[in-house]
Amino acid sequence: MNWSISFEPLLSWPWLAAVLAPLALLALVGLWFRQRGSVLRFTALLALGAALLNPVFLDEERDALKSVVAIVVDRSQSQDIGERTRQTDEALAGLQQRLARFKQFDVRVVEAGKSDAAEERTDTRLFSALEGAFRDVPPSRIGGAIMITDGEVHDAPAGAPDFSAPLHALITGNDHEKDRRIRFENAPRFGLVGKPLDMTYRVIATGDQAGQVDVRVSINGEQVSVERATIGQTMPLQVTVPNAGRNIIELAIDHEPGELTDANNRAIALVDGIRENLRVLLVSGEPHAGERTWRNLLKSDASVDLVHFTILRPPEKQDGTPINELSLIAFPTRELFVEKIKDFDLIIFDRYQHRDVLPILYYDYISEYVEKGGALLIAAGPEYAGESSIARTPLMSALPAMPSGEVVDKAFYPRLTDLGQRHPVTRGLDGSNTEPPHWSRWFRTIGVKNPEGEVVMKGADNLPLLLLDRKGEGRVGMLLSDQGWLWARGFEGGGPHVQLYRRIAHWLMKEPELEEERLTADGRGMVLEIRRQTMSDDPGPAQVITPSGKALIVRLEKSEPGIFLGSVETKEIGLYQVGNGDLTALAHVGPINAPEFTDVISTEDRLKAPVEATGGSVRRLAATSALGGITGGVTLPSIVPVRSSGVASGADWIGLRTTDDSLLKAVSRVPLFGGFLGLGLLLLAMGSMWYREGR
């Protein structure tokens, strides 16, 4: 029982003061002057005041509340190293068993660090988890917290946490661990394709390890060099960015005997390759309606440096005008096609015909340029079918089709072939998904025979319209109509000429995103996403190797013609190898070089400040023998309930605070001046005063 007294006055306090104050003054004056009956009058006044104040005895029935104790369990990936998982499980089971003996504790177990969200796996955030466990608990009921961790906690405060209860840390692992790791010190995010990129890195080892170590340098999964690094020193590294888009630079060192883990023996840097401006040579025949279409498109592309020549006055033209009076630039044939032909990424002949402007030998140079990796585009007009066609020169060896001599002047809608619907150059062209296509008609097709390569668009009478072919190490494209300018001019609503022409040019210049057969993978959070670009109907499943070496099979589903997608949820942070057929790809899932693996040595240092600020303790779980060796078990301290002002830790025990808070269930009221008892006491006091005054 909890007895207490309470006053429930019959009048408001101002009225009580108005009534009792004068009477009290008179009673005190009587006592001061020792008048007869003053004691009885004062006693009667007290009885009247008590009756008006109405004192009530309260009997409260209460249930004691429990203190809330949180056990925060570190389940991050660094806890998978060695015996740490076993130590953690044994410690958790032991603590739960010991705390179950104390009915005054409400135990909450919180596991942190195992979320599938990449942003939550970047580092170990135990104090955030602890804050969540106590979010609905008033400060007076927090009994304390126990953390089971390897000590690599990345959100530990410099001082006391936001509660005043004891915090204790039980550290997994042991104090004789050894590890070696590698990390990038400086890794630029961008680099020019084909140009050297300067980076720096460092190999770090525990203790006083010194010496040198071999560092394997790989780019996009292919080893490019082996560097010699001095442990502890910042080392320079120079790599050449091979491709546009994302490139994975990987550094790796060998596993050392006795080392904790080799998860941090690799360091990853993602470098986006940026091409220098592509150089394009555009040679136009005599002026025509669509001459400026290619020029305007290429000039509008900031990544292209364009050199454009139009043949306005061929050698056979004789009109009597002296050469020195012509405001024309002589065509620098030798400079372009002999001395600097290798500097161009693409050569375009737009309705060009052989009229002795180029020496016949130079066509051999162009064919050789294509064979060795160059790109050539023929934008054909009626000239291609005539006697002066460039197909009748040594360039014929580089061309994907020879002219049939036929020029079909007939209205038609350019249409995609079955291959064209899957080919990245023409797939998904705006307006291609309707019949007829939602773009304007063209009116001329140049006939060819025995086409090679891939016919991705067809013209009038199903004749080839757009050919794409590979010759040696280079590529050749052939657009068999000169009517593309109708789309550019908006005739009948126009068409996607910018989209089509730009794709053709970039495919010829080997843009990775436009490759017919391409495998890419990327990490989105903790999901590995795979994209397969192919001309086949079914590329089959993808094979995935996880950072730990496990093999997975991922099914690829068709999302659109030529595109197959697959994904798999993962739990490991690191570099994944993906394969499909002859293609391979790399992808990094999770944060790059996450703090979780930056330092995996178990430590007591990070938690000492916040723990000691609460009066708690930090101690290791690993049991030791009398000779100082690790026995393999865990040593748990005893648990002692303590008052809020008591000591919270000792040599072999930890304290948790008990609370004085309780829950009120019922209240019994006993009025002292209620009923006949109160009336009798009041009458007795008044009667005694009257009796004394009457004598």
UniProtKB/TrEMBL annotation:
Keyword check for Glycoprotein: no
Keyword Protein biosynthesis belongs to the record: no
Signal peptide: none
Superkingdom, natural source: Bacteria
Spans through the membrane: 12-32, 39-58, 672-691
Keyword annotations of the record: Membrane, Transmembrane, Transmembrane helix
PANTHER family the record matches: BLL2462 PROTEIN (PTHR37947:SF1)
Protein name: Glutamine amidotransferase domain-containing protein
